[in-house]
Design a protein that fits this description.
CATH architecture of the largest domain: 2-Layer Sandwich
Bound molecules: 6-deoxy-beta-L-fructofuranose
Structural class: alpha/beta
Largest sheet: 7 strands, mixed
Radius of gyration: 22 Å
């Protein structure tokens, strides 16, 4: 089989990468082309993303490929969810997109529910209520008479906005649109009733596309900048989590996944959205997957906790590698202090270390002081939160969950994978760590007719990537610790 090359742009909330995928002889090989940080820019009282910096990084990655004369068949872009760019009538970006961590949406859902009740919003969308969902970002902008929104002709979600900058074509890709809380998963259309409240019309979104459709080809401007030809840009699963879930190397359908990065997304793949009293009460989400599947999952504050602590340590000249942090966590006492990683105080605190200390003080637990103790507290608490969500999944899933697949950067952390395995009590398979980029590339391969369906994709992935397997250990000890976690579990700190 001849080798075919694909270019993936995978942008997360803390870092981004461009990756070259090579498919041949029934195997996929990856090569990281570039890796770069994605900074939240705090300015004039708001938090922004620098979309031009991201665009420049994509151009740099493409330039490298062109210099090396690698004949890429297509390009795919995936990013984090919910955020969007506003485009004026003249096709210009109206300002840098807001970052979902901007506190301007605090309280926005409650205000929105005075127009349409919470239950109805959930019933229409099946999306967990989170204050930063695009619907609530739009309602905040609308309420504040945001001049950019008032002038906007089009609204493009992040992967689509970058796709537009590369091709000049405006689309709205289904999986990323499903994170907005504006889409109805049954009809796969935007809901006018929800949009009316925020003064937005359906025509303000781009042409609606599903994963696999072509957006366009590189503009002449981008061709000149990069040295490439008219390479097609394919709409992959634009939502990073959707691309990651597509890459789960599962052997059958009875699995749950944990996509572990800045966020931890834990869930199952189902045929139809699960929207009922229990899913509403547990605030679970139904996001769009590939081939008509639904990602029934819950957001858990993931490596964000540790990423923020690491940044703080760096400012005091203490940079710790992940290996150092993991070793120190292992040496620290177990289950000494347990936090609810999803407590509001951890969403975007000025100091994560102080926020953790504050939570522990308020719940009468010892305050973790050393970097090892803090890291241990984060790992112990994450594994407990995973158990809590996993038990809900076990109750709601229409099948027995036989295995948990951990994918994404966090799957490289063997200590946390073992903790998670002990906590959930089923076998865990960790890897691939570049799940999102792999999903992105394989969906391009499918669009180019090189694989038939998601099952074939997953088979090919499982023969191409390395995984690590874990079996539950010391489960009684973990059960006991879970009781302690529940006793210290708070949602109001
Ligand atoms: C993970 C993610 C998640 C969203 C969040 C904003 O990167 O896409 O699925 O909820 O970012």
């Amino acid at each position: 089989m001849e080798h075919t090359y694909f270019f993936a742009v995978d942008l997360g909330a803390t870092s981004g990468r461009t990756i070259l995928g090579c498919l041949g002889d029934g195997k996929l090989e990856l090569k990281e082309v570039t890796r770069f940080p994605n900074h939240i820019i705090e300015a004039c009282g708001h938090c922004y993303w620098d979309i031009y910096a991201l665009y420049r990084e994509i151009i740099n990655g493409l330039k490298t490929i062109a210099k090396d004369n690698i004949p890429i068949r297509s390009i795919g872009i995936d990013t984090w969810g919910v955020d969007f760019a506003l485009i004026g009538k003249d096709g210009e970006l109206l300002r840098n997109p807001y970052c979902y961590r901007d506190p301007h949406t605090v309280g926005a859902p409650e205000e929105y529910f005075t127009h349409i009740p919470r239950e109805r919003v959930y019933d229409i969308t099946g999306i967990q209520i989170m204050n930063f969902n695009s619907l609530f970002q739009l309602s905040t902008l609308h309420r504040n008479h945001c001049t950019a929104l008032e002038a906007a002709d089009k609204i493009l979600f992040m992967p689509d906005a970058l796709g537009y900058m590369l091709t000049g074509k405006m689309v709205t890709e289904y999986t990323i649109a499903s994170t907005s809380q504006i889409l109805n998963p049954r009809t796969k259309r935007f809901e006018k009733e929800l949009l009316d409240v925020v003064g937005v019309r359906e025509e303000q979104f781009g042409r609606f596309v599903f994963p696999g459709e072509q957006i366009g080809v590189l503009t002449e401007e981008v061709q000149k900048l990069t040295g490439l030809g008219a390479v097609p840009v394919i709409s992959v699963a634009g939502h990073d989590t959707a691309s990651a879930v597509a890459a789960v190397p599962a052997q059958n359908e009875n699995f749950a996944y944990l996509s572990s990065g800045t966020w931890s997304l834990m869930g199952i793949e189902v045929k139809d959205a699960i929207i009922n009293k229990e899913s509403y009460e547990q605030n679970f989400t139904n996001e769009g997957g590939v081939e008509g599947t639904t990602r029934f999952l819950k957001n858990i504050c993931g490596m964000w906790l540790l990423e923020r602590c690491r940044k703080e340590w760096e400012t005091t000249n203490n940079s710790y590698s992940y290996t150092e942090l993991i070793d120190a966590a292992l040496a620290a006492p177990a289950f000494r202090s347990l936090i609810n990683p999803d407590a509001p105080c951890f969403q975007n605190p000025a100091s994560m270390i102080k926020a953790i200390a504050g939570y522990c003080k308020q719940t009468g637990q010892p305050v973790p002081e050393t970097y090892g103790e803090i890291t241990r507290c984060i790992f112990d608490s994450l594994s407990m939160r995973y158990k809590q969500i996993f038990s809900v999944l076990q109750k709601i899933a229409p099948f027995p969950i036989e295995k948990l697949h951990i994918i994404g950067g966090g799957s490289r952390n063997n200590l946390l994978s073992q903790f998670t395995c002990n906590a959930v009590g089923v076998p865990v398979m960790a890897g691939p760590s570049e799940g999102t980029a792999i999903g992105n590339i394989m969906l391009q391969a499918k669009a180019n007719g090189l694989v038939n369906d998601i099952a074939a994709m997953r088979r090919l992935i499982s023969t191409s990537v390395e995984t690590v397997s874990f079996e539950p250990q010391n489960t009684t000890q973990w059960e006991e610790a879970y009781h302690k976690y529940l006793a210290c579990y708070r949602e109001d700190i």
